[in-house]
Structures are given as structure tokens and as C-alpha cells.
UniProtKB/TrEMBL annotation:
This is Glutaminase. One of its GO terms (molecular function) is glutaminase activity. It comes from Paramicrobacterium agarici. The keyword Acetylation applies. Substrate binds at residues 70, 120, 164, 171, 195, 247, 265. SUPFAM superfamilies: beta-lactamase/transpeptidase-like, SpoIIaa-like. Its EC number is 3.5.1.2.
């Protein structure tokens, strides 16, 4: 892995490793049943990750626009839920995995419902359930919802829309079948016009990462700060994504990646890690299920490397808390060692920094630490010659997620390469496996060790 230029480049550097390793993977074929989709660069590849503070990390072709296609289904489903409620939506659309392809002709026996909102049949009904005074108004509201999730105004690729409209006979057959079964009550042609337009909206890998992060952030877009939908709606959407979003690969996907996700035949893939980040990937070569080959492999590698499976996190553990200790120590918490630490910190303010971590430290917590530390390093007086010394107080950390261990280790290595010193205060003695990372049994010893180090450098 290349050496990051700045602390915040640590995540980008790892995305670069995953990206570069998969460039030689040319398995799969681009979608050609929609003629316009066949005319793309097959080897394009982008990976973007958006944290819950709005920072986006990117590798490869993340600014290359492509049509959202079936990835739109998850976000239009959120709008239908907000408009008429979960019970009304699922009176007309099921919630069960189909175990079949995205365009399968399959309706529930006895009700005529499509199996779930992620297959084409279910998505067509879901689109029809969105409130709108006219088809134009309905699509306007859908485009507004997609744009709000992405954090910018999105547009439609007119040529792809025309191509979808001309080649959409299978979707027309599905719509007429559901119309006869009673699950679709709206006009077929008007509904499909809206559906084809929503699939033709242009996005980038970066957009998908922000959209996934908005779901993972309980409906608040981390880039704009705007609430797009409720946390409850996000919970419903991510549940359906986890069980149905990858079609007939959904079970194996959940087993291997463990993240709510949705794929699209243009090559886009969005995944959400609740409470942590969103992931957006693009590579147009598809596997047998219609998902991006590289996108699936990249997401699985990230999930496996960082322990991101949604069932991996113990639900009983407290949420991450990361704070610079300066103000807390200044206020005085009653402990003699805190008073001593506050004095040492004040005496070495330009060269010594202390951060306290509490609870379950995951990607979001580790990222906050890295960005806070980077800001502190940039604020140091430019004439300081002595290298910085950083104390990480892990005393009240209940558990370090795999991704947090890796990020803290990368942080320590980055600092060590620049002559800085990182000291971890951890009574449990958890080793991050990094040469140059000092460990102390208690907080007082760690701060004293750090103060001695800064004095020796003066």
C-alpha cells in the first residue's frame, strides 16, 4: 500500500489497493439488452466511500456518470413508504426474496403481488404507489428524492431513457400481468414511462456512496446535513436491501459481505453500513445475476478485511465516542491523575495531544479520530521543530472493530514514519500490532511518558 500523504489519505490508500488489484479482473459482460448500455467503456472502475461526517474517499473512475438503473428501486421504495406507509405498500408488494432473476415473471399465488420491491415487477408497482397529481409530478418527486439522497441535483440521460422505452417489452408484459392480477392499478404506459425515467437518472460512484451513507446515517445526508427520510424508513429499506437487493445472489451476498446492498445493470452498486458509512461502486461488466463483477468482489474484500458484517457488531455495546481530552481535563473530573494530566497537557500544548475513545469503536469512530488529529497537526505553530506526541486513551473502549484496529495501526505507522510518537493507554493491553506504537498500562503513565518525550525533543 502506498504511503498516504496525509492522515485522511489512509482510507483512500486502502481503496486504491483494492481498486488496483481488481483492474485485471475482466470477467463478465456489459448489459446489452438495453442497447444504449452496451456502448460503455467496459473497464471503467470506481470505488467511493462516504463516512457519516460527510468526508468522501475515492479511487478510480468515481466521477464517471452512468445510469442508476435498479439501484433506484431502494430509494423510490423509501418514498413510497413515506407517502402511504409500510402496510399499504406491502399490501400491494411482497417482502420475500424471490430466489430468481431481477426480471422474472413471478407473482404471489392468490394475491397477484410481486415478491418484493427490488425485482422489476415489484419496483414497477412501488413507482406507481408514489404520490403524484400526474405522471410528470410523480417523476418530479422521485427525482427530488434521488437528488436529496445524493446531495446534488441529478438529471436524466435522455438517450438511455429512449433506449429503455424502445426495448422494454418484458417490463410491459410484467406490468400488464400485474394489472390483470390487481396488484397494479395505475395506467401501464404512464407507470412505465416514470419507471424508465427513474432508471435513466445519471449518478456517479461518489453519488452512490453518499446515498448509501444517508441510509446508514438514519436518513440524514452527511454531506448536506439535510434529513431526507426517517430512521424508521431507512431501517425498512436496508432490511429489504439485505434480503432482496442482490436478487438470486442475495443469500450468498449476505453471507459473504453482510451489508444491505442494491445492484444495477449499468454496473452500479450501493451498500450501506448502518452507523458507519456508505459504499458506491461502478464497473459495467456483470455477473450472471446482473451485478457488477468487480463491484461485488471489491465490496466483499472490504467487508471481510474490516469485519463489516451487520451481524458482527454486538448490539449491547455502547456507541463510539471520540473526544479531545483538553476540555475534559480542564473542567476537572475529580481524579488526581486527570489534574496532573491537565497540567502536563497545558505545559506541552503545541507538541502533545490526548484523545479519549469510549465504547465500541468502529469505522466512524476511528475516522473521527483521524480527522481530528489531522486538524490538530495542521494547527500546530509552523515553527515547531519538535515532533508531535499523541496519546490515545483506550481505557473505556469496550471493543475495537477490525476496521478500527487497522485504521489506528495505519495512523500509528503514518506518525512513526514522520518521527512522531503515538502512545496508547490501555489497561487491557490490546496490541495493534504496529512497530513504534508505545503502550502504557494506565492513563497517567501514558501522559507522563508523552510529556517526557516532548521535553526530550526540545
Amino acid at each position: 500500500m502506498r504511503t498516504p500523504a496525509t492522515l485522511s489519505d489512509i482510507v483512500t490508500a486502502f481503496l486504491d489497493v483494492v481498486h488496483d488489484r481488481l483492474l485485471s479482473d475482466r470477467r463478465g459482460d456489459v448489459a446489452d439488452y438495453i442497447p444504449e448500455l452496451a456502448d460503455v467503456e467496459p473497464d471503467a472502475f470506481g470505488i467511493a466511500l462516504c463516512g457519516l461526517n460527510g468526508r468522501v474517499y475515492e479511487s478510480g473512475d468515481t466521477d464517471l456518470a452512468f445510469t442508476i438503473q435498479s439501484v433506484s428501486k431502494a430509494f423510490v421504495y423509501s418514498l413510497a413508504l413515506d407517502d402511504i406507509g409500510m402496510n399499504a405498500v406491502h399490501h400491494r408488494v411482497g417482502a420475500e426474496p424471490s430466489g430468481e432473476a431481477f426480471n422474472s415473471v413471478k407473482l404471489e399465488s392468490g394475491t397477484g403481488r410481486p415478491p418484493n420491491p427490488m425485482v422489476n415487477a415489484g419496483a414497477i408497482v412501488t413507482t406507481a404507489l408514489v404520490n403524484g397529481a400526474s405522471p410528470e409530478h410523480r417523476f418530479e418527486r422521485i427525482l427530488e428524492r434521488l437528488s436529496a439522497f445524493a446531495g446534488r441535483d441529478l438529471t436524466v440521460d435522455a438517450s438511455v431513457f429512449t433506449s429503455e422505452h424502445a426495448s422494454g417489452d418484458r417490463n410491459r408484459a410484467l406490468a400488464y400481468l400485474m394489472r390483470s392480477a390487481g396488484s397494479l392499478t395505475a395506467d401501464v404506459n404512464e407507470t412505465l414511462d416514470v419507471y424508465f425515467r427513474q432508471c435513466s437518472v445519471l449518478v456517479t460512484s461518489r453519488d452512490l456512496a453518499v446515498m448509501g451513507a444517508t441510509l446508514g446515517n438514519g436518513g440524514v445526508n452527511p454531506v448536506t446535513g439535510r434529513r431526507v427520510t426517517s430512521a424508521e424508513t431507512c431501517q425498512h429499506v436496508m432490511t429489504i436491501m439485505a434480503t432482496c437487493g442482490m436478487y438470486d445472489y442475495a443469500g450468498e451476498w449476505l453471507l459473504r459481505a453482510g451489508l444491505p446492498a442494491k445492484s444495477g445493470v449499468a454496473g452500479g452498486l450501493v451498500a450501506a453500513s448502518p452507523g458507519e458509512f456508505g459504499l458506491g461502486l461502478y464497473s459495467p461488466r456483470l455477473d450472471h445475476s446482473g451485478a457488477s463483477v468487480r463491484g461485488v468482489v471489491a465490496a466483499q474484500q472490504l467487508a471481510r478485511r474490516f469485519g463489516l458484517h451487520i451481524l458482527h457488531r454486538p448490539l449491547s455495546l455502547s456507541a463510539a465516542e471520540v473526544t479531545a481530552a483538553t476540555e475534559e481535563l480542564d473542567e476537572g473530573l475529580g481524579a488526581m491523575q486527570d489534574a496532573d494530566a491537565a497540567q502536563l497537557l497545558a505545559e506541552n500544548a503545541d507538541d502533545l495531544a490526548v484523545w479519549r475513545l469510549r465504547g465500541y469503536i468502529d469505522f466512524d469512530g476511528a475516522e473521527r479520530l483521524i480527522l481530528d488529529l489531522e486538524e490538530w497537526l495542521e494547527s500546530r505553530p509552523p515553527d515547531r521543530v519538535a515532533p508531535a506526541v499523541i496519546v490515545l486513551d483506550l481505557t473505556e473502549v469496550t471493543q475495537l472493530q477490525s476496521v478500527a484496529v487497522w485504521m489506528l495501526a495505519a495512523l500509528a505507522s503514518w506518525c512513526n514514519e514522520r518521527g512522531m510518537r503515538v502512545i496508547a493507554s490501555d489497561p487491557q493491553g490490546r496490541s495493534l500490532g504496529v512497530a513504534g506504537l508505545s503502550q502504557a498500562a494506565d492513563f497517567e503513565a501514558a501522559v507522563q511518558d508523552a510529556a517526557d518525550a516532548t521535553s526530550a525533543d526540545d
